[in-house]
Amino acid sequence: MTYVTSPHSGDTPGDFGRDLLSNLYYQRGTTLESASAQDAYHSLALTVRNRLVDRYIRTAAAHYRANPRFIYYLSAEYMLGKQLDQNLLYSGTEDSARRALEGLGLSSSDLDALDVEPGLGNGGLGRLAACLLDAMATQDIPAVGYGIRYDFGIFKQAFHDGGQVERPDDWTFYGNPWEFHASDDQQTVGFYGHVEPLEGLRKSWVPGEVVLGEPSHMLVPGYGTTTVNIIRLWRARAARESFDLSRFGAGQYGEAVEEIVRSENISKVLYPDDSTELGRELRLKQQHFLVTCALRDIVRRFRLRNNDWDDFAGKVVIQLNDTHPVMAIAELMRMLVDEEGLEWDRAWSITRRVFAYTCHTLLPEALETWPVALVQRLLPRHMEIIFLINHLFLQEVAARYPGDDAKLRELSIIQEGGEQRVRMAHLAVVGSSAVNGVAELHSRLLAATTLRGFAELWPGRFHNVTNGISPRRFVRLANPRLSDLISGRIGGREWLTDLDRLVELEPAADDPGFREQWREVKRRNREELARHALAATGVAIDPDALCDVMIKRFHEYKRQLLRVLHVVAQYHRIRRDQVQDVVPRTIVFGGKAAPGYYAAKRIMRLANTVADLVNEDPVVSPYLKMIFLPDYNVSRAQLIIPAADLSEQISLAGKEASGTSNMKLALNGALTIGTLDGANVEIRDRVGADNFFLFGLDTTEVDAVRARGYEPRAYYDRDAELREVLDTVAHYDKEIVDDLLNRDEYLTLADYRAYVDCQDRVARAWRDREGWTRTSILNTARSGFFSSDRTVRDYCRDIWHVTPLHIDG
Length: 809
Fold this sequence. Notes:
Blueprint: H1 13-26, H2 37-66, E1 70-74, H3 84-90, H4 94-103, H5 108-112, H6 124-138, E2 143-148, E3 156-160, E4 163-167, E5 179-181, E6 187-191, E7 194-197, E8 203-206, E9 209-221, E10 228-238, H7 245-249, H8 253-256, H9 258-264, H10 277-302, H11 312-315, E11 316-321, H12 328-339, H13 344-354, E12 355-358, E13 369-371, H14 372-378, H15 380-400, H16 405-411, E14 414-415, E15 421-423, H17 424-430, E16 434-437, H18 440-450, H19 452-457, E17 462-464, H20 471-477, H21 480-490, H22 512-537, E18 546-551, H23 560-575, E19 585-590, H24 598-615, E20 624-628, H25 634-640, E21 646-649, H26 661-667, E22 671-674, H27 680-687, E23 693-694, H28 699-707, H29 712-718, H30 720-732, H31 734-742, H32 748-767, H33 769-781, H34 788-800
Helix pairs in contact: 1-2, 1-4, 6-34, 12-13, 12-15, 14-15, 22-33, 23-24, 23-30, 23-32, 29-30, 30-31
């Protein structure tokens, strides 16, 4: 491979300023004197990007020469976060850029404010994907991420009368300077149509509708290394000549662009509402669109240096991030059998060795299934392939468990009884070489409950890979004050790529001077949060109050409702002048609910209602404030997490797969109040039981409560404070209270008293300023395990079987 080093790679402020002006002139077509703020921002972004391009070309050349095994990461979402600050850090140009901008009379903070988060993700699934891409590049792992380039992302969240309002996230309104378009490298994606027989098991699918996938890519640089990988994103476009000129000429303007609109809807938004038949079809279209584009691109890349299909599994690993991309298994079989002419058994052997599957849930309702009738209509050939995969698999099961029809029904990819449905998690397990959970408890429960039959059939296929987070994003960029304090104490910044070195902070926990510095960092971060909160919500919060944080996607099992109930209890205690167990506290909520998830949205509205009740009460508000920062995303996380003192991880035990906000908060010195759920278990094991506020039922006790017949109303009857709390809530939303008293699916009332008592312990601990600070330091010092670098090393060792490929600088 031939490549040319970019001339725009100087390291001095003068070099940087010269290149910025060049981009302003030749890319934006303007001068410094007449440039708009967007002109200046885009020129800055291009100047930084160009410094990464040279590294990317070196990386691509090294990969071409070495022909290594690649990791291809397929995910429906990525929460990448803002790119400017990260790329300044990773390109080593923070200081030269700042000085160059000053010399040109430009404000770096003003330009940074124009940097927009890519609207490609929503929650922990997408942020994990972004952290893993970052870690793979940092550790020199050849990798490409694949996703959809959504026009409007998930949505921008606002509140009206306390309720969530969804607005379009037009994140590319002014363009995206970080991406490279490749309009001439489109892929064709088919839908509907019919199937025609060829010879043997080989058939020809004749689609009834065709859509084009247009790729672009963004750079994924590693930190402290030359490697720059990419994330390749696909946008849906109509086929050429889809515009009906004759209808347009006849004044039928809507009809003239109908085919274009229908095609491009596929990549409009992340997770379209699936409460309607059309919404469900669009979701399945999205998934097939992603996997078809990705697989064709993977095959193209494979053929750059290889031509024997028997080498494919040795060069390709495809990691499926949850069930959204699982249709790739059927699509690869279709490509190998129907297009490439491979015999079924050979194609199946290749397919099973290529794929690996990460399961992110224990909730049966969260394991995707699709109606067979929908798949047959939209993807007729794929449904035939899935039926055949299932038929051959059930023959294997029958040989292992002769005469056991119940076992066949349990493991079948096709769910029978009523409407036939395709169980995507079952297809993922059957068609993969490895299946992993994302925390020790989650992986254990996955094998013992959710996918038990498969774990008994193939015990060696199941693994645990505990999630991790990027310390570059969530300490160095999010919390620069703490980052500098840590670096000054342990010497240098090597800990950013070797997070286990944080253990060197442990002796500092007993140093009064260091504890004072630690508290000062926390206070300044709370001051910054207070300024933002006032601007965003109009509520003034006390930077000296305990900052109590619950930031996560809204879902009933995560039990934001339990947090609200405790706030109401505190409200009544303060009103009764029972302040002996109350310390000044600010409750911070952040998170979105799916547009169609009405139960979660009711809880969100209640949270805002209670916030108004608390904040507007002159007796209560000096002790207790509650804010809900709208439109939670990576940028909001980077603001909230450094300021947090208490991390709320209060899901019902056995429901949370892992969680990553728990890791981010602990790494930044927040103490956790939580149940033994998800990665909480591992956090508590590592930071120490004395440094973790544990409450609530464990998984065994949850099962026991359910087994003997859970009666939530009994807790209401015998707990006077709980009764007062629920009676107050009923005044604002009786439906929520009725559900708690008569159903309470997630045992909120069963854990209420233990939670309130544990919060009283938190208040007592907060009063011991030195003791709290010591515990905060130990939480950070003992969180090195939760680096995404360690997560990637675990994947490389146990599942992917790849080694780093160092790129010469």
